[in-house]
Design goal:
The complex is a heterodimer. Chain A is of the alpha+beta class. Chain A contains 3 helices and 13 strands.
């Protein structure tokens, strides 16, 4: 093996000149830009606008038409159910007996009627209803940082039609008012958040409370 | 002899020109419209991500800390792995970072996330909530996420036309775009999991998600984007990769199909957990098998470049024919070359010689085939290691 230092090497080989990476040929310039980079960038912009503007606008213009009928029951993860008010719209959540193919109901459900809105959320929780309410308050305060709705007043006890004891507290915010209720079925926590205009009438409030009272867990009565 | 050497030198020059190997990449290119487009979309995505993180940090700080740390380690391991498998005409590290950042911020926050929400809501409104839960994700994400990620390669080609030249370049950059997307999506998923128990037991609530995402991640976004972007290069054609429309479209369709299938596995399996696990494993195996096949078909051109760049070195007896074959061969060829050494010390030396050979190839590429002090030094290193002389440095 010859010594590479003395081996024959490309005689007089010098680096072939390559223009700087930022150099643009004179015949490819347009308003100071490299014209060859315009089309691919516009294509990406078009895709971004389609995804971030056009699709959300189309979604916003298409209304929900899933209206609660008398006798409908919504079911959530952990066999938690509640009876929504007939005439309200279901914006998320599934009716009992209509599980997805996986068999798992989602953890949240929301029904709305005008500005009135009720959202139920379930999850694992080890503790009682009052502790769950404290946890919800801690998390809400951390997420909202004083903005949006605030929990006000002392917690009170609520009892569902099933006889389940829960804890609730009033919430207020700019132009909104409502209630948060918490229940724990075994190790399954349930959070119900109802909000609406601060001047909502007594009838709307009674409707929301009726839905909260209907919260139950399948088989809970047998336990 | 001289004529043959001249021909080999010309072939080397052609390979270096075509491959773009060793060319530097400048990120700051004010006259490049793609640079501004990239900057704008990444900035939007970055602001969206950081504001989400900041908003939730007080509530889910523990889970966020765990997710960011875990996925940072995951990303570092992946980086090491790609360096390990890419022995050939390497892309500039800066370009890989640019790809990663596109996947992490622009493709997620500025593009796919908005489209996913809208399409899922539209599916629910049109076909009902049950249908949307069954098939919505599988019929939204393959279109939104794969194109959001893949579109980044269009900008990268416009920003680095002299470097991104082959389908393998698309494969590697796609993998980094996918990695960025995967990491940011995983952190977001971990944040969501942290809230599933009302903010209590955050670590317990999110650790399962983090582990599952890490295990399945290899056969998810990283893989999809690597294949998709290799397909995009075939579809567009590059100086070192002739346009192959059919192959391009196929490689774009495959990851979309894999992605759609993966997102629909829950619905396909039904309530049976056993069936779901079986399908998950089958999906991962199929996806990895396709990935290996695409890697093997795209990397061949890069190996040819290594052969063309190093053939003059072999003709000048800097490396042997066996070493050239090993350098331009696959892992099996390199192992066979090392094993031929016999004794353990010889096998080790053979490995070092190969590594020095790759370092010489990188120097030759950086010098555009010219004789420089760095090239001469890299060449002398091959000889030194072969002779078993300890390094002076």
């Amino acid at each position: 093996m010859p010594d590479p230092d003395t081996a024959v090497s490309p005689a007089g080989a010098t680096p072939r000149f390559e223009p700087d990476e930022r150099w643009v040929p004179a015949d490819e310039r347009w308003l100071g830009l490299d014209r060859r980079t315009i089309r691919p960038t516009l294509a990406v912009f078009a895709l971004a606008i389609l995804m971030s503007v056009v699709l959300p606008v189309i979604d916003a213009t298409v209304p929900y038409h899933d209206i609660v009928k008398a006798g409908d029951v919504l079911q959530l993860e952990g066999d938690v159910t509640f009876v929504p008010e007939a005439g309200w719209g279901i914006t998320s959540g599934l009716r009992a007996g209509h599980a997805p193919l996986s068999g798992d109901y989602p953890a949240t459900a929301t029904v709305e009627d005008g500005a009135m809105k009720l959202t139920l959320r379930t999850g694992q929780f080890h503790g009682d209803a009052r502790q769950l309410l404290d946890q919800i308050e801690t998390t809400s305060e951390a997420l909202n940082r004083g903005r949006g709705v605030r929990l006000t007043g002392a917690p009170t006890t609520v009892v569902t039609e099933q006889g389940k004891l829960g804890a609730s507290v009033r919430v207020t915010g700019p132009h909104t008012a409502g209630v948060i209720a918490a229940f724990v079925f075994g190790t399954r926590g349930v959070e119900a958040v109802a909000t609406g205009p601060s001047d909502a009438g007594a009838e709307s409030t009674a409707t929301v409370l009726r839905m909260i009272d209907s919260i139950s867990q399948t088989g809970e009565g047998k336990r | 002899m001289t004529t043959m050497l001249a021909e080999l030198d010309r072939a080397r020059d052609t390979a270096l020109d075509l491959s773009g190997w060793g060319r530097r990449f400048s990120f700051y290119q004010p006259r490049n419209f793609a640079f501004w487009g990239y900057l704008l979309l990444v900035a939007i995505g970055f602001l969206v991500f950081v504001s989400t993180l900041a908003r939730r940090y007080d509530a889910y700080g523990q889970a966020i800390g765990l997710a960011v740390t875990s996925f940072a380690i995951y990303a570092a391991l992946f980086w090491w792995f790609t360096q390990h498998i890419d022995h050939y005409a390497k892309l500039p590290a800066k370009l890989m970072v640019v790809a990663f950042v596109w996947g992490g911020f622009a493709a997620t926050g500025a593009m796919a996330a908005n489209a996913n929400d809208a399409i899922l809501a539209l599916y629910a409104k049109t076909f009902g909530q049950v249908w949307a839960l069954n098939w919505g994700a599988g019929l939204a994400a393959p279109f939104t996420e794969e194109w959001a990620k893949g579109s980044g390669l269009l900008l990268l080609i416009a920003m680095a036309p002299r470097q991104v030249r082959t389908a393998f370049d698309g494969f590697i950059l796609g993998a980094f775009i996918g990695l960025g997307f995967q990491i940011i999506e995983d952190i977001t998923y971990a944040m969501t999991s942290a809230g599933t128990q009302f903010g209590a037991n955050q670590i317990g609530a999110s650790i399962g998600t983090i582990i599952l995402r890490m295990v399945s991640g290899v056969a998810a976004h990283i893989l999809y984007s690597a294949i998709f972007c290799a397909g995009l290069v075939y579809l567009l054609g590059r100086p070192a990769e002739p346009r192959k429309i059919g192959r391009g479209l196929l490689l774009i369709a495959i990851p979309m199909l894999l992605h759609g299938t993966w997102d629909s596995l829950g619905a396909i399996a039904g309530p049976s957990a056993l069936k779901l696990i079986g399908l998950l494993i089958a999906a991962i195996v199929v996806a990895l098998a396709i990935l290996v096949r695409v890697y093997q078909s795209t990397v061949q051109r890069e190996r040819d470049f290594v052969r063309d760049v190093m053939a003059p070195e072999q003709a000048r007896d800097v490396i042997t024919a066996a070493e050239l074959d090993a350098m331009a061969g696959n892992r099996k060829a390199r192992k066979a070359y090392q094993k031929a050494g016999g004794k353990r010390s010889e096998r080790k030396r053979a490995r070092y010689v190969l590594n020095a050979g790759y370092a010489l190839a990188d120097e030759l590429a950086a010098a555009r085939g010219a004789e420089t002090d760095r090239v001469r030094f890299a060449r002398s290193e091959v000889a030194r290691i072969r002779a078993g002389i300890p390094s002076r440095w």
